[in-house]
Structures are given as C-alpha cells and as structure tokens.
Task: structure prediction
Amino acid sequence: MTPLVRTKNLKTYFPILQGIIRRPVGYVKAVDDISLDVQHGQWLGLVGESGCGKTTLGKTILRLIEPTSGHIYFDTPSEIFQQIESAENENNQETLETLYDTYDLATFSGGKLKVLRKDMQLVHQDPFSSLNPRMKIKDIVSEPMIVHNSTSGDERLKRAAELMNLVGLSEKNLSRYPHQFSGGQRQRIAIARALATTPKFIVFDEPTSALDVSVQAQILILLKELKQKFNLTYLYITHALTVAESVCDSIAVMYLGKIVEYGDPSVIFKEPMHPYTQALILSTPIPDPQQKRVRLVLPGEVPSPSNPPPGCRFHPRCSRATDVCATTEPPLKQRGQNRKVACWHPLV
Amino acid sequence: MEKLVQIKGVSVNFYTYEGVVRALNNLSLDIYKGETLGLVGETGCGKTMTAFAILRLIMPPGVIETGTILFTPNGSAPVDLLSLSEKDIRAIRGSKISMVFQEPGNALNPVYTIGDQISEVILLHRNNEMIVRAIKDIDCHLNQPADERNKLFDYFIRMQKYILAAMLNSPGALLPRIVQKVPLVKRLLWRINNEAKKTAVAMLKEVDIPDAERIVNYYPHQLSGGMKQRAVIAMALACSPKFLIADEPTTALDVTIQAQILELLQRLKDEFNSSVLYITHDLGVAAAICDRVGVMYGGSIVELAEVNELFVNPLHPYTRALLAAVPKPGEEPMPIPGFIPDPTNPPAGCPFHPRCSLAQDICRLEKPELHEIYPGHFIGCHIDAGENIDTPSQN
Result:
C-alpha cells in the first residue's frame, strides 16, 4: 500500500541565535530524524508531552515550518518510491535531484506548493485565537475558496452554507462573528474552514484540548463522520492518551523529537513496549476509582530539546536503563506486525 | 466526622450589561475535616466561583447575594466568612485557608524571586514566629565565646535584639513602628527576612524541589511548569493551612508531571492534616485522589457522593452523561446533546432539563432540591433512583 504522506529522515531544527551578529550557538532539535507513513484513510494519533515536537512535526509536514533536512512526499505513486530507492542505491545524484524536485514537498516553493496546500489543511488547537474576530463566519469559511478555487461569490456562499450544515451548524450563523459562538461551535467553524477546499489530508493540532468532555465527544464524533463521508486522512496531534486510544487507528508516541513507539492503540495500550509509553499510560488518570492503577511516577522532567541526553533520550528517567542506553541511540525497529519501537530493552 | 466548612445557600450574581449572570445558585456544601472533596463539572458551571466565594475573592460586578459560609478551624467557634470584615478575612486568606491556582505561570509575580514570594506569605502571617527565631539566632551568636566573634558589631547586634524584642512585646509602640517604616533603618530587620527565607527553603524542600537553596533565588521564568506549580503549592502551604483549595492545579501540566503533583498533594495533605477542595474538570483525576465528589451544573451541585459510589452508581442523568462522554478504548464517546445554558437566561426548573432525555413536566417547572437517596449520596433530580434511571440519558 502506498502511503498518502511519507516523511523520510525529516529534521526541523530551530537555531538559537546569540550575540550582535546573531550567530547560531546551538539548535533546538524539535523534530529529529523522523520517518513516518500515514496511509490512505488512516487516523493516525501523534501523542506526547508538551515540547516533544508533535506540533512542529505536523506543521513541517504541511510545510508551514521549513524542514532543516529530509524529505516529505504527499500522494506520491509507489513507482516513484521504487525509482527513488533504486537511484539512492545506485547513488545516481542526477536522477535523484530531478525526482526530489518533482515529488519531494521539502523542495517545493511558490505555486507548486500552493497547488498542494489545497489538499492538506490544518485545524488549530485554540478555537478562540484561530478565528479572526473581525471577520464574519461566511468570510472565514470562504476565504480558502477565494485563495484556491476561483469560484464566484454566490457559489462560495452556497458552499459555505453547505459546509456549515456539514459540521452541524445552521447556515443562519454565516453572518455572525466568532465571539458569538462557544468553544465547541468555533471549533466546528474551524473544521468547516479546513474542509472548504475539499482536502485529502487534515492535521488536527489538539482540536479538543480547550473543550469540555461533553463537547469533545461531539467534535470527535463529527470528525469520524466527516472522515467516512469524504474519505479523509487525519493526523491527530494530542496529549490526551484516552482520546487517541478511543478514536485513532494507529498511534505514534513521541519523546523529545523522536518517535519511540508506533502501533495499533489496542495493542499499545494493552502491552506497551517502550517504558515511556508505559509511564504515559499509567500516569493518565481514569475515571474509575475501583481500578486502582499502580501509579508510576516518572522522576524528573523532559530535558531540553536543545541539549538532549546522548544515547536513548529517555534514559535519564528510565528505570530499565543500562550502559548501552546512555551511549547508543536505539533505532526504531519493526517488532511484530504494524508495530515499531525504539528501545534497547523493550517491555514485551 | 467534624465539619470544617459549611456552605449554606450561597448565591452569587454578576451584574453585567448583558443581564444578571447567576454564577452560583443556592449552593450548599459541607466539607469535613481531613477529606479531599472534588468538584467536577464543565466550564462555567461555577466550580471556581465556589472557591472564590469561600475566600471572598469575588470582584465586582460579582456580588455574594445570600448565604453563609461557616468555617470551624480546630474546635473554635464557627465564623461566618461572609460577614467578616475585610481585615479579618485577610488574616484567614493564605494562613488558614489558602488556594492553589490553575495557571502557575500567572499565579506567580514575574519580577520577584520564588523566595521573595514565599517569604511574603510567611512574613504576613507568621511574623512573630520569625521574630522569635531571629532573637534566638542573635542569642546564639552572642553566646559564642568572646574571642571567636567580632566585638565591634556587638553593639549593633544588641540593638537589633532590643528592637526585635520590642516588636514582639509591644508592636504598637513608637520604636517598632518607626523601624518598620523608615527606609534604611528598616534594614536592621534583615534577620527576620533571613528567617523567612530559611523557612521558604524548607517549604521548597517539602514540595520535593531539588537544590532548593539555589531555586529559592530564581525568578518564575527560570522554572518549568511543574516546578512553578510546586512553588505555588509551597506558598499555599507555608502557613500550614487547615483548608486548601486547589483550582485545577494540574490542568496546565503534562500527564507525567500531573502524576507527580497529585502524589505530592496527597502526601502533603496527610502531613499537614488539612482538608482539600479539589476543583477539576477531569473525572479521571477526581477518581484518583478524592474521597467525595460533587458534580456541579448551572451553579449548583447536582450530585454528591463518595468517590466509589459516584463512579460506580451515578444517579443524576448529567453525571451519567458526563461519564459517558469520557473517551474510553474501543467505545465511542457519547456527547451530551445541546449546549451549556446561557448563564444570563438559565432555563426554568432544573437547569439540565433541556439536555436531559428523562425530563418530565415537573423538571421544566420546579428546581429540584439536593436530597439524600442513599446514606451519603445526594442528588438534585426529580426522577427518583432505580426506576427510570437504569437507561443512560442517551437514546
């Protein structure tokens, strides 16, 4: 199966500038060498704590943040991957260059990128700051159409009304302003805006973290409906494991700019392989007082991504760490079907 | 069990241009000694307002309209917090009742060090204790053998001791008042500040901050979110309060840090033998650390029970709907239909009736009173337990 989105050795470093000439003295390694596939129609959850680079990865895939190095492919046919692979093996720089220029999103700019932007959209975290308070809802929802599908004003309005109905709001709301809506309604408007260009791929950056549980449930069900209806592919960034567990098809756990575990939620949550995943699961409180979990309290805090610990990045907080963890970085290895883990001493 | 705080029929209104917002609606709640009471509910249901009403922190246009809040610390006669003078309530805030706020970043003042901010609480409420310690320190110094200390400063040190003793014995006299007010002369009192800082360091150690002697001189921006929240907890516990209000203390933190803070709070609660009012919107957190849980909706408590009872046998339709909305593995979360009612124009009768599938005529007319169904299990609902409630509130 060819993936819809594939990143290969993707790195996003932010320079730390110092001095009068603003020379870089170091780099914040927000996304460090990530290779990730998002299949057609998949709902991939990206979980991790704040500062681990989830949002940066999502935005880099959309090219809203410039990658430092690496490749991003979007909707590329499988023959091309084979061609790239063979060219890499033969070390044929010329063919590689041309292939990268035509298919690698990381090299695109200007008009080429704009064409693709139509197919990939983003829904932001905070619905209170992602909608312009001075624009009416109809302008907010139809703005992507002005940019991407040069349709007439009437058609745009019709489509905007259609979109509002899709996300469960009345079209009467079109001439209102964002401040007249509650958080859940605003998030619905943001989703309508993302759907305006009929995208194939949507990145959700913690869309429900600012909402109450009852509203969160409404939004999650809406997302599920929309996904089935339009055959969408989601990258769902969240820090709430319970949300990821209940709605996602696959989950990637990130720690300090690296993916440490990947797999199906049912398997990951039952038998986590990486100690960090286990710690995350055990520290998430569940609303059932009878099921007293052995609460595993991780010592310390997430280290700074500008100066990550050598070897496995989790080893200073890990109870299973040995000498090898402190010196050599564990690769993300395939372990069983549809399961990857980056750990020298996996739990299972 | 003894009651520490009794909230009786408290109503809080906010007079805004859009109309009167009824933030608390005839709320009654008892908090027992040594327990952790959780308050859960969605945004705008009045959880934080309850905490603010207890501490009388409600700012205009908010007004506490009716009710009493009786506070009974350690066997003394109960005092009504709502009828105290501003001076008396200030003596209680931070010393007997203190609060941990939601955003540790906003609760700390960015231009003072952590140590300064913790010392402020200590100097405000435990000044005399600090003076006694400072005098002891001076005595200790003076009792050293004469050849080991510098006699040159003896005079100053004795003068310091005299002033400190005067502050302790006759705080209203002229000398202490002058020394406390006049700049430069005020510096003679540095020993008190020193003692307060030492206590601050001890408090930071108490909340498991590593290297507390160094951290005490840090500014808030130099600390991470979890460390800031620990510092705020240290500040709240600096006067070993009898009653701690924690207003979503872990909402802004990551789960692994949240687990650390929850464990810390539980340990400190036992250590200081205080009661905790724990406000949260996360039912999982409430299940993990509370003894009793109250569910709030539309400015009043709709259900109140022991934590096991509430989660195993929820009776109010809203509690059931809320529990069904929490995402669980393999199950689709069930949303609650409709929206939270407009607080300026709440529905007549039961505030939940427009969203409730079991609503009957009486629900639209009459607001249900909180009544006891089983021992210790209260609900505010017209529909009695056992009959219709077996089906979840969704169709």
Q: What stands out?
A: Confidence is low (pLDDT under 50) at residues 388-395 of chain B. Chain B touches chain A through 45 residues (CB under 8 Å).
